Amino acid sequence: MRGKSFVLRLTAVFAAAVLALSGSPAGALTVKADPNTTITTSAGLQIPAYSGSPFVAVNGNVPFFTKGELTTKSFEVYSDLDSLGRCGTAYANVCTDTMPTQPRGDIGPVKPTGWHTVKYNGIDGNYLYNRCHLIGFQLTGENANEKNLITGTRYLNVTGMVPFENMVADYVKETGNHVLYRVTPIFTGNDLLADGVLMEAESVEDAGAGILFCVFCYNVQPGITINYADGSSSGPAFTGSDKSTTASTTSSSSKSKTETTTTTTEATYIGNRNTKKFHRPDCPSVKSMSSKNKVSLSSRKEAIADGYTPCKRCNP
Amino acid sequence: MNVICFVDNRYGMRFNGRRLSRDRVLLQRVVELSQGSALWTDSFSRILFPDPPENLVVSENFLEEAPEGAFCLDEDRPLLPVAERIACLYLYCWNRDYPSDEKLDLIPQEQGMELVRTEDFPGYSHEKITLEVWQAR
């Protein structure tokens, strides 16, 4: 886990917001590392090191939106990937119009920067990383949009971000109001894995009376050491019984101070939305499956929990 | 008195000074539950009722002032200081994870209260809300 504090350059956040609103690429928001291994910038806002809470309030929990940004016109803007292939700010005015009307589709083909398919003991579902929506699917219905998916730990996704997404989604469903919503991944230098995400939201029609927050959610996983330069990691080896092959995560970066360990990796399962069967990716049934019926499933447990049954042909 | 609270999966009640969620079906149930008695609350919760029921009483000291048998809708006040006065606690559970920085301070199990009834029902914006009724022993 990264044990450091870092400082965001507020001007960069504002710039990202303006660029995103105008539809121009905002790029990834980066911070600098100082010689003492803390991330710092010349001026602005300090983010304390992770200390057990999945998020921390930033700027007094007040987002950096300007009054002029508050509008009842719905929109979604996703920054272009930067030169390293990293996501930038995702920005939307969430309302019932932007919410999904179809079940979530396949996002498996997207491999965000820093991606590793790796499992450890002690993590819900065992997978360290999720393809983590910047703006949650339940808010804007984005599926395999590479501009909206980062590599995020299970902890960032489920414990950090989802509760905020739930709060916004339920508020919109109940009131029919708009919520201005912006998520900015924060990368250090040329790291491929984000340190975390800055999440900002403000309900429009009631001027923030219903929803108002500005938080930083940490891209950490308790018990796991992560090299943010490339997403490699180490931790308690997975000792489960599934039939996957084993491989090592490797790190070529001098930033990593921990040795990587041999861990178990697993190909994503493919579900068939029509038959409700799930398959190994190399199962012949997958080749003949209509793309609109394909669903990426990150684990056997998830597949079964979602109502899928194993294919008798490939016996996943 | 009978206290009504809304909580998420971690007994969260508010975040950044705001309620975690709301649901019009749930509010209608609260009104129906309190019919025949007074429904006490404070100004924070008063705005949930744009057309306030006739039995609504608003006071910033409602937990201290509400008489025996009254219902108190509490979204933002600690309950431990008045725990001795609580005969029944109606917990409406969102069955959702929300962020929270203010949580219910009175955990009924820890107070020795007895769970006497549970009921699931669909809300307007929530698939399933669960009512837990806890009684003081």
Give structural notes.
The complex is a heterodimer of chains A (316) and B (137). Chain A is of the alpha+beta class. Chain A has two domains: 6-225, Extracellular Endonuclease, subunit A (Extracellular Endonuclease, Chain A, 3-Layer(aba) Sandwich), CATH 3.40.570; 269-310, no CATH class. Chain A has five helices and 20 strands. Chain A has helices spanning 10-21, 137-140, 154-175, 284-287, 300-305; strands at residues 6-8, 29-33, 39-40, 45-47, 55-57, 76-78, 90-94, 129-133, 149-153, 179-188, 196-203, 212-218, 225-226, 233-234, 246-248, 262-264, 269-272, 277-279, 294-297, 309-310. In chain A, strands 2, 3, 5, 6, 7, 10, 11 and 12 form an eight-stranded mixed sheet that branches. The radius of gyration of chain A is 20 Å and the shape is globular. The model of chain A is unreliable at 9-28, 32-43, 243-248 and 250-267 (pLDDT under 50). In chain B, strand 4 (39-41), helix 2 (43-46) and strand 5 form a beta-alpha-beta unit. The two termini of chain B are 14 Å apart. Chain B is an alpha/beta fold and 137 residues long. In chain B, the strands form two sheets. Chain B has a seven-stranded mixed sheet. A three-stranded antiparallel sheet of chain B has the order 3-2-8, with no helix packed on it. Chain B has one domain (2-135): Dihydrofolate Reductase, subunit A, CATH 3.40.430. Chain B is 13% helix and 32% strand. Chain B contains three helices and ten strands. Chain B is globular and about 35 Å long. Chains A and B meet through helix 3 and strand 12 of A and loops of B.
What's the short story on this structure?
The complex is a heterodimer of chains A (316) and B (137). With 316 residues, chain A is an alpha+beta fold. Chain A has helices at residues 10-21, 137-140, 154-175, 284-287, 300-305, and strands at residues 6-8, 29-33, 39-40, 45-47, 55-57, 76-78, 90-94, 129-133, 149-153, 179-188, 196-203, 212-218, 225-226, 233-234, 246-248, 262-264, 269-272, 277-279, 294-297, 309-310.
